[in-house]
Specification:
Layout (H helix, E strand, L loop, with lengths): L2 H13 L7 E3 L1 H11 L1 H16 L10 E13 L7 E17 L3 H67 L5 H35 L8 E3 L11 H11 L1 H22 L4 E15 L9 E11 L7 H67 L5 H35 L17
Parallel strand pairs: 1-4
Antiparallel strand pairs: 2-3, 3-5, 5-6
Helix pairs in contact: 1-4, 2-4, 3-4, 4-5, 4-7, 4-9, 6-8, 7-8, 8-9
Length: 437
Amino acid sequence: MNKPMILILLLSLTVLWLPAEVDRLNYSRALSIALKENLKIRMARNNILIASRNAHIGNAGLLPKLELSGDASYQEGGIGFEERETSTTTSTQIQASYTLFDGLGNIFNWKKLQSGKRLGHLEARNQVEQILLEVSAAYYSAASAYEQMIISEEMLQISQERLVRARKRSLYGRATTIEVLSAQVDFAADQVILNRTRFLWEEACRNLNVLLNREVNHPFLVETAVSFQTDLQLENLKARALSSNASFLSTLEYLRQLQLDVKISSSVFYPRLVFSASYGLNQSIGGWGISLNDPQENTRIGLNLQLNLFDGFKNIVQRKIAKIELKNQELTVHDQRLTLEKNVINVYEAYKNNLLELDLQKQYVEAAELNFKRTQELYNLGQVTTTQFREAQINLIRSRSNVSTAKYEAKLKEIELIQLTGQLIPDWSSGETRSNQ
């Protein structure tokens, strides 16, 4: 067996003949693994827990306050050192208080905390979606690299067969030295291309493994088959984006928080009514000593009414600022709405253009395959030059590579459309994902 054939065999063994236990990964499974294992997604889930814990009724001041306190004080009195009297007073008290009315500020605070919980969930979902877009790009980058490697292997095999044929023809005097050297040069060039595509495939695997929180060199194979949705209509996509896009919904939720801030800033102009009740024990004894052996009891129930008449215009300034911030957020919502619609249209048009390009590339690859087969037949009969054969070979490989690139570019645009419309992870908290295969 000659050296070129041995090299082809070794490359096939190392690249394609992988162990049976090698992980076979498809796109849906990659998303599922990312949702469970990706470290940033796990942190996003923790952020949701923080937002949920923070939305507690106690943080809004709607629960009563209960305090237990104790005190001991020592006192000296009188004139002269020998005539001084000393005493110790010991007391303990439990007190409860509850705000009956504060201009509804506590109610508005409670609503703001609930809004903060929803905002935290939306921001986490948006973060998760961005990570899944990274996973999608990494997965299809790996799939593309794998296909390019396979194409390079086919190209190398064709060049190897051409080299073997040229050497045989040279032995019988039917091929010139230049023809053999040309075949050797092309074979060497294809070896370099294959080595480069193998490197890109291995690099893409490492990138994807990191996003899936797996060992960097974890071996796997990817599915290269891709299917596209046929029911994507622009008007439906725009409507879905405005109703479900996580980033845009976050903008709307923040607007609601600023509306509540205006109400909270207005609540300070109303009187504040607080109910309080306490029960205590106290005892005084001569000298130093802490004791409640024979205490006096005292009980107190009261209402406290406060009205801030003047605070140097502080509350007025805060309310004006809150209204300005609200106005700015209203403008931001309008801007985000226009931007979202623009992004949906741009991605949709790019998606349609990619699908059209894919169809054209498929037609071109069919022509390139027919041209190569015909050129190969003529080359074997000695009716075309090595340059013409090589040109047909390169055109075939380039056309296959273009189809692969167009296919994955179109798929990534489709995934981006689904993300913009809030459909990428309709229930990501339970680990479910939408399959786009």
